Amino acid sequence: MGNPADRWLLDPLRELGRIPLSAVGGLGRMGIFLGRTLFYTFAPPLKFFRVLKQIQFIGFGSMLVIVLTGAFTGMVLGFQGFYTLSRVGSTAFLGSMVALSLLRELGPVMAALMVTGRAGSAVTAELGIMRITEQIDELEILGLSPYRYLVVPNLLAALISVPLLTAIFDVVGILGGYLIGGKLLGVTSGTYFGAMTDYMDMSDVLNGLYKSICFGGLIAWVCCYKGFYAGYGAEGVSKATTQAVVLSSVLILICDYFLTSVLF
Amino acid sequence: MIAIENLHKSFDGVEVLKGASLEVRDGEVVALIGPSGEGKSVLLKHVAGLMRPDSGRIVFNGKDLWNLQRADLVALRNRFGFLFQNGALFDSMTVYDNVAFPLREKTRLNEKDVRERVLSELEQVGLTGADDKYPAQLSGGMAKRAALARALVRSPEIMLFDEPTTGLDPIIVHSIHALIADTHKRLGFSGIVVSHAIPAVFSFVQKVAVLYGGVIRFVGTPQEIFKTDDTIVRDFIRGSLPTDAFRFGEPVPAEANVQERQEGTV
Amino acid sequence: MKGRLNLELTVGIFMVIGLLCLAYLSIKMGKIDVWGKPGYTVFAIFSDIGGLRTGSPVVVAGVDIGLVDSIRLEDYEARVVLQINPGLEIHEDAVVSVKTRGLIGEKFIQISAGAADEIIKPGGRIRQTESALDIEALISKYAFGNL
């Protein structure tokens, strides 16, 4: 202390060293959090009623936003696809192009991002408020695991809801693409749906499904973790919510890249 | 018997507890008092096992809390009640469901017995008729009483109260104190009450402990505390020094306190 | 328990819609036969099947009459099992060929109807095959004049 060499040279270095240390520490804590969550997922009893409630919140509650974004994504794909394909004179492939983009890429990613924004942030905020008002501590005192009551239902609900929401997104998107390509730009329904069926197979559907399951787990993991370890006060909760949305969105895109390279 | 032995705890490099030790005998209620920000709540959460000490031990009847088997820890938790500062009622449930929650989750009582127990407990705390309200619809005093009902519904052997009366008006403070004294007589739990309600809290406790500078500076009966030679304790009791000024009168050993001090003076 | 009913109903609606969408995608894209595979199978051996895949259509006179069930390598030749719709008979002297839709389009199997009295039994083999046309080889031959 007080030594100028210390203050100007060593302290900044110390601070610099603290950043990777705390990052690694945070990663470790996230890992432990996931481990405990998985433990309580498989250790009965399961709080089935709470799982239903979270499916209602994450799944049913996100349907409107998924239908809206899905329709418009499909419609944009219809437009863009048509103009791109018309340059090379193969607008007959519009159906397969729209379906392929949606099933393999846009469906899982967009649906996951929408769920993060709508439901993930709310999960973080709710857990964060429960943390700062000591409701999580109260569960501990009652000898009940907060993982079992609060985290596991969210994880299971996300694992079930996100793939289903993705499927809804895909179907609505394909119809949206048809609305533009077929009704507006004159690709016949036979060509549109025929090309779609011909050039797609089960692996496309499954790849999208695997991705969306991974994303569902990722959203629940990140958003629950951030809420569970929220800081103090309203500021702590708002910070946690922001971090949860940002981290989860970034991880979805990173994860998407690796899943794509592994799955194809 | 609960024994707190030489407890140390730091947060972000700031040492809050610096070797606090305290004993609570069976059936005894101890008032834990001291200036704000000294870590009374932190100490209480250590006793409940919600925080892990950096060093030191929490011992229940000769068993170290952090060396217990999982099953033993759960068994121990079942004997615990904790009244949190803000009640910590589950805000997604009604008052009735809040109080019924521990019974539904931890016992095999049927719904009729649960109902009986919950309604009688709500009557004890004077909340008859408020059972279908949500926590957000309750006043501070009502929320505290509902939380007390939830803590007491399992007939705990150890009760920890984190500022049960802070932020309530004097009449409600009195009624909550009477309620605690009453249930103590009825259930005979041992407990710790963190409180700022001096001297009201002395009316029903057997012992008083003063947490000051990260250690338990004084332990004695409520009568003894008025006769102590320790000037800091005496001054604190008389309230002759405001809490903030109090802090400056103390030598500051830890470097972390420097920052706090600057914040106070600027 | 009105709230409980409501909860179950909304979750139910969501699950039904979601699963329907998933089922639609699987059946439409994955060409999964929910009711089991109708009809019967025959097989043929090709020396080269180009880019033929399982699920590719089988056509007679431009009409879909089945699809490719499986492809396996046997003695360095491709053994292709064809799923034929019920009610359609294939004559013993029919010719199967691997064709391409358009210049760069999808591969499919075409069966040209025969006239023999004999009919191929389920599980039987179509003997006359015509392998995929190697368009690249054709183009290079043409381009470099080695006709």
What does this protein look like?
- The complex is a heterotrimer of chains A (about 260), B (about 270) and C (about 150).
- Chain A is mostly helical.
- Chain A contains nine helices and no strands.
- In chain A, about 85% of the residues lie in helices and about 0% in strands.
- By secondary structure, chain B is of the alpha/beta class.
- Chain B has two domains: about 1-80 and about 155-265, 3-Layer(aba) Sandwich (Rossmann fold), CATH 3.40.50; about 90-155, no CATH class.
- Chain B is built from ten helices and ten strands.
- Chain B has helices at about 40-45, 70-75, 95-105, 110-125, 140-150, 170-185, 220-225, 230-240, 245-250, 255-265; strands at about 1-10, 15-25, 30-35, 55-60, 65, 80-85, 160, 190-195, 205-210, 215-220.
- In chain B, the strands form two sheets. A six-stranded mixed beta sheet of chain B has the order 6-7-8-3-9-10.
- In chain B, helix 4 (about 110-125) crosses helix 5 (about 140-150) and helix 5 runs parallel beside helix 6 (about 170-185).
- The longest helix of chain B has 18 residues, at about 170-185.
- Chain B starts with a strand and ends with a helix.
- By secondary structure, chain C is of the alpha/beta class.
- Chain C contains two helices and seven strands.
- The interface of A and C includes residues 52, 56, 163, 168 and 209 of A.
